[in-house]
Amino acid sequence: MSYDCEELDPTDRDQWNELVETAPQGTPFHLFESLEVLARESGTELHPLLVRKGQEPIGLFPIFDRRVGPVRVAFSPPPDLKVEYLGPVLLERQALKPRRREKRLSRLVETSLDWVDDEIDPRFVHARTGARFDDPRPFIWRDWEVVPRHTYVVDLTRDLDDLFMDFSSDARSNVREAEEYDVVVRQGDREHIEPIIDLMRRRHEAQDLTYPLEAATVESLYDELPDGVLQPYVCELEGSFVGGQLALELGEDHLVWIGTSERDAPIDPNDLMDWHAIQDAAERGLKRYDFVGANNERITGYKAKFAPELERYYRLERSTLPTRTAARAYKRIS
């Protein structure tokens, strides 16, 4: 039976989202509303690719493309929006035997990339998978550059008291010492997005760094995604905002997308927000608390405090130009 790739129309968003929501590898960024916001904010064209075996859907691969001078480039996700996960999604409505699963994944990659070559013909392609994507070999076999990346994931099925006792001693102390202050951690709403992004930008500027994500982009995601997918958390000390976090949820996963706090606060807002969000997610039946990245040595020490497990995801690149030229093209747009 043949495998075919088609580009879904926006009118098919419900079909797309149903497939994403039932796929273990799907993330909140794969939802059609997220893809439309990312395309609009990055100035790219969205191609939501669906691969079928006969009439049966077997996988999804959202692709974004843009022209940079004479060169067309493709991405999943697009650059400069602080989105770490996207890439292909294998649909598994039932457990597949290893040989069948590997064949389907290989066909998903092959069929979708053939479509990209025929319809876009990019000179450079960059993708990053989600943390549940566990087999990059179909890309390796097609001579892509595959680089492992890492994230930390906390197991939310554990007893919360036991989990807390496995936190680092300073994380436990910070949570306990905060009880002496008039401090509240709670779920926020749309109005808290701008203060969180503004604080993140100020923290970057203090290090002579730029922060590319705009509050308007996050607000668009909040407005267009289904209720409860994008969740702001805020930490308030004596009624004043001292920290915030933006998280996303889908299926069994809670993803910590963005988090920051005031440096001169007498408490540690980040420890409090993560502990509060861990309890909140566990009580609602979620199973994984994903810190979305453990690649920056400077901040891995913080994330490792919460007794997580290290997991891999992958950066995938292919170029039909010399690697040096492709890298320059990517840097120009990111």
Tell me what you see in this structure:
The chain has 334 residues and is α+β, with helices and mostly antiparallel strands. It folds into two domains: 3-149 and 314-333, Gcn5-related N-acetyltransferase (GNAT) (Aminopeptidase, 3-Layer(aba) Sandwich), CATH 3.40.630; 157-286, Aminopeptidase (3-Layer(aba) Sandwich), CATH 3.40.630.30. It has helices at residues 13-22, 32-42, 98-119, 137-140, 160-165, 169-177, 193-205, 215-224, 269-283, 297-303, 323-333; strands spanning 3-7, 45-53, 56-68, 71-76, 89-90, 124-128, 145-155, 183-187, 230-237, 240-250, 253-261, 288-290, 309-319. Strands 1, 2, 3, 4, 5, 6, 7, 8, 9, 10, 11, 12 and 13 form a 13-stranded mixed β-sheet that branches. Strand 2 and strand 3 (56-68) form a beta hairpin. Helix 2 runs antiparallel to helix 8 (215-224) and helix 7 packs antiparallel against helix 8 (215-224). It is globular and about 65 Å long. The model has no long low-confidence stretch (mean pLDDT 94).
Detail the topology: elements first, then pairings.
Layout: E1 3-7, H1 13-22, H2 32-42, E2 45-53, E3 56-68, E4 71-76, E5 89-90, H3 98-119, E6 124-128, H4 137-140, E7 145-155, H5 160-165, H6 169-177, E8 183-187, H7 193-205, H8 215-224, E9 230-237, E10 240-250, E11 253-261, H9 269-283, E12 288-290, H10 297-303, E13 309-319, H11 323-333
Parallel strand pairs: 4-6, 11-12
Antiparallel strand pairs: 1-2, 2-3, 3-4, 3-5, 6-13, 7-12, 7-13, 8-9, 9-10, 10-11
Supply the key terms.
334 residues, 11 helices, 2 domains
Give a brief rundown of this model.
The chain is an alpha+beta fold.
